[in-house]
Amino acid sequence: MQIESQAIIKFLIGFVFFTHIAVAHGQKPNERLLHDHWTASWITHPDESTVEYGVFNFRKELVLDQVPEQFVVNLSADNRYKFFVNGKEVCYGPARGDLAHWYYETIDIAPYLRQGRNILAAVVWNFSIHRPWAQFSLQTAFVLQGNSSHEEKANTDNTWQVTKNLAYSPITDFSHLQTFIVVGPGEKLDASLYPWGWQDTEHDMAGWKQARQIVHPKPRGIGTDIDWVMTPRDIPLMENKPERLAALRRSNGIDHDASGIMFGAETVIPAGGRVSLLFDNGVLTKGYPVLKVSGGSGSEIRLTYAEALYAIDRDHPDLNRGKKHRDSIDGMEIRGVYDIFIPDGGDKRQYSPLWYRAFRYLQLDITTGNEPLVINDLYPIYAAYPFDEVARFESSSTLYDRIWEVGWRTARLCAQETYYDCPYYEQLQYVGDTRIQALVSLYVSGDDRLMRKALRLFDVSRIHEGITHSRYPSYSPQFIPPYSLFWINMVHDYYMFREDPGFIKGFLPGIAGIIEWHNRYLDHDTGMLGAVPYWNFVDWTEQWPWDNSLRIGGVPEGGITGNSSILTLQYAYALNEASALMAFAGDDLLASAYKDLANDLNKAVMKHAWSAHHGLIAETPDKTSFSQHANIMGVMSGALTGDQAREVIHKVINDKSLIQATMYFRFYLFLAMELTGYAGILADQLYQWEDMLAIGLTTFAEKPEPTRSDCHAWSASPLYFFLATMAGIKPAEPGFKSVVIEPNPGSLEKFDATMPHPNGMIKINASNTHLPHQAEFTISLPDGLSGIFKWDGKVIHLEPGEQKIIASQMKYP
């Protein structure tokens, strides 16, 4: 049967491409250009290199007889830009994509214009070889296009002027962090070289040059080359919100209280001094620190950013002794990404880095020369994707309240123009993280735009072999085959939560390609997946450590040698959900073939890797190693069902000799627990989150201590389970056309939950839930949404509007 399933899939693989290719290219109107023709040109500096590091200022004077009611412009840059009108920052971008999907922003700048002379200005930077790994680049350039003939007077052409900003130089050596970090360089800015006032109408333009036109943007598919393929921004602008630091935790070299800096009170740093000020934001944040100073010619200010402080061995200062309680500063030092600002003696000079920084701790190390330095102000501007927290889960547990708060902060900090794995070290969008992040976003905010963008980007990342990149956008290719499979699950998630047939069907060719790729590596002797190439990451367990020689970690034995039960069962899990997607699209033959192959894989694992002695699925057919992961995937794939699945998950929960799942894979543990009737004790499995709270983390970390990243997206997963499992709110059918509410509150006495649905808010208030027969519920569904309510083996139909349910009055079906 296994060989027959593979043959059917190969025969039908072309069918799915041909039947869906038209949909894939015709169902995304939001990717079409707003313009049939761009009359503006991409512009750059006439003399400077367009591929080396550089920061450039562009400007154009625009004279208006009167202020228009509307003045819409479309703009983009490579690598990035910040755009100003009359000195006011209007927007920044472009939203990250790749060269074939180069985003541009559309902005109405009328509110910033005035009668007479106006200055349109942009700072554009190219970090070149130092740029973040998530940043694609062709060459330094800027483009602005008006939306109409009236607005086209603002178009970029040779009437724009440009200068290279020589004040900037990159800081690239972060080897002192002793870890992988790919977020771009720090900055050194020499204020004596900065063109202060460059956005003003009266600025001295000496040294500025006429911009050089390099190419006209073209609509998609037009022309002999593509350059940047202009694509309308499909997400909103980021939230930007000024905040204040929480505390000055340590000061050295100064004889007076400097804490007023946090509130805009001027503080004088005497001449000839060396001062260190350690500020604590109270919680981890990300955004743009703003420093304002006066005087201080000959000074140097170093701004260092860190998630936590480190215990440093005084005898071996280059040796990092790790983190302790995150509130602790005694005997601890800061090590992190840093910027350097060199004042020029001017009044109220303002420094803020071009790209955002992530930090809880911010340290200023100041060396003054012959002139005192006045610090006028210091504050961060919080920057993140503008998710609104519209859901809630309030209960009788203060622990859950704390996990919700810290989990949502984690999710917010890991979302910008794409989802991020972590805001400090990588800022890369990985499928493994993103699937979990997207579900948290849907449940807490209801905003699906970043999820849709992620689905598209991973789809276009697929290589000719058939699999997706593990992280994208990223100019450094990486492939984690299990992540390509989780992308299939992510498409299925969207299919369950949103009624969007055209969008979903556009991904079916990609799904078919991923499945065909995996079929090449089936072991015909066992029927399991054989040795699969690339990085078969599963989880950051202690038993699967990082291997410097192979440059991989988190990989079980079978992920290298072949016949891994985990990978085989995960493949079956993805095939089952791919089958549902194909059936949805009307491809019944392919749906059946995928289902048959999933069954074959499950049978092969149970034949070769099931240990009757242990009552568990082993890692490989040699049955020498056992993990939670293999047995979790046994449930998720359907290899384990009924009483057998329940018995296995009971062992998975209680047998500490098994290789244990960390925060990432506990997402799948919790899913498996729910499938096997253990959702009521899910709270008992939150101890890894309790441990993180106990050591002062204000976001949830990548893995248990010792951890690199203090903020990692996948660890926000409890928010999903509070709403989907404990409150029990889930789609009852694809497109969320109806709802099933089946609470699993465990020992909770009461809870109050709300969740956004495309039609409105779903609400459930529960009391006496620790006494199943006396429980009472008030449920409210939005217009147009009906469903069912399940409790204590009983079922009742739900209608739109509010309804009160008393458990003792419910009847068994």
Descriptive terms for the model:
single chain; 813 residues; alpha+beta; Jelly Rolls; Maltose phosphorylase, domain 3; 11-stranded mixed β-sheet; 36 strands; 24% helix
Q: Which structural class fits the helix and strand makeup?
A: alpha+beta
Main beta sheet strand tally, sense and closure:
11 strands, mixed
Shape: globular
What is the helix content? 10-25%
CATH H-tier superfamily of one domain: Galactose-binding domain-like
Strands, total number:
36
CATH topology of one domain: Jelly Rolls
Low-confidence stretches: 15-35
Radius of gyration, CA atoms, in whole angstroms:
28 Å
Distance linking N and C termini: 39 Å
Oligomer: single chain
Which CATH-level-2 architecture of one domain? Sandwich
pLDDT averaged residue by residue: 93
- CATH class call of one domain: Mainly Beta
Tally of alpha and pi helices: 15
Strand content of the residues, in percent? 25-35%
